[in-house]
Amino acid sequence: MATITFDTHEFIKRLRAVGFSEEQAEVFAAEHRRIIDDTLVTKEHLDMRLRELEYQLIIKLGGMMMAAVVVVAALVKLL
Question: What averages of pLDDT result for each successive group of 10 residues across the chain (79 residues)?
Fold first, then answer.
């Protein structure tokens, strides 16, 4: 599994170097880290979502096949 690292200490140092106060830099780094953690999509999440979509597709195809069998059976009975 790949790990994404975010060096908040280095980030804060860079913010301080361009004029942010210590408090501003810490709050900005904390929020930046939270956003990364909240929006990062992991391989496990993608795999889970792919399985969900696969199941939905199987159910829809199964329903279409059953409908086709019913239509064919009705046509055979009528003819």
Answer: 76 94 94 86 90 97 97 92
